[in-house]
């Protein structure tokens, strides 16, 4: 499949994603059975993952959204730009950040730090994908769907310059 100037090949099929999302939701249902967490999906990329995940979450919960950006093309800029923030008090709340992918971990670390400074009772993260640089840096992600090396992926909400989010499977950039 070609998106703009790059070739991509199917990497993780929709069925495997669905199975992993259900497994992550089951973990969350178990760990938060006596709590009422606030899920905080990070837009834009996590919208499909968050939607599917939250359909499987059975504990009482609230959902709010934050939009951040640190990508340009196929690589992280390392500069976090918060575009839209949350609009409710997070003091003394159990927060679960929902991410599509943890690449370098810079964005997630900044968000966790900010939420803790607002007095959250607990802050955890759930991500569909975690790349090797974040693992090497030991970024704290309690719930992980799939570990990747350093592939550039799109589909299932992830994009390449705004394109490709609408595919139900995940694709990785083909070798040149």
Structure write-up:
By secondary structure, the protein is an alpha/beta fold. The chain has a single domain (2-68, 77-173), classed as Rossmann fold (3-Layer(aba) Sandwich), CATH 3.40.50.2020. It is 26% helix and 36% strand. It is built from four helices and eleven strands, in the order ββαβαββββαβαβββ. Helix 3 (106-117) links the parallel strand 7 and strand 8 (122-130). Helix 1 crosses helix 2. The protein starts with a strand and ends with a strand.
Question: What attributes characterize this protein structure?
Answer:
176 residues, alpha/beta, Rossmann fold, seven-stranded mixed β-sheet, four-stranded antiparallel β-sheet, 4 helices, 26% helix
Short structural summary:
It is built from four helices and eleven strands; from the N terminus they run E-E-H-E-H-E-E-E-E-H-E-H-E-E-E. With 176 residues, the chain is of the alpha/beta class.
């Amino acid at each position: 499949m070609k998106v703009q100037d790059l070739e991509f090949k199917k990497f993780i099929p929709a069925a495997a994603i669905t199975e992993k999302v259900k497994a992550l939701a089951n973990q969350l249902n178990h760990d938060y059975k006596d709590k009422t967490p606030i899920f905080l999906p990070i837009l834009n990329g996590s919208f499909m993952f968050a939607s599917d995940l939250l359909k499987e979450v059975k504990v009482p919960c609230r959902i709010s959204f934050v939009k951040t950006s640190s990508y340009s093309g196929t690589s992280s800029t390392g500069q976090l730009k918060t575009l839209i923030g949350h609009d409710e008090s997070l003091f003394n709340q159990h927060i679960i950040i929902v991410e599509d992918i943890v690449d370098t971990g810079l964005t997630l670390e900044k968000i966790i730090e900010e939420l803790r400074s607002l007095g959250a009772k607990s802050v955890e993260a759930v991500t569909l994908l975690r790349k090797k640089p974040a693992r090497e840096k030991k970024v704290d992600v309690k719930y992980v769907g799939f570990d990747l090396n350093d592939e550039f992926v799109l589909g299932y909400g992830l994009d390449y310059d705004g394109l490709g989010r609408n595919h139900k499977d995940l694709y990785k950039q083909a070798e040149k």
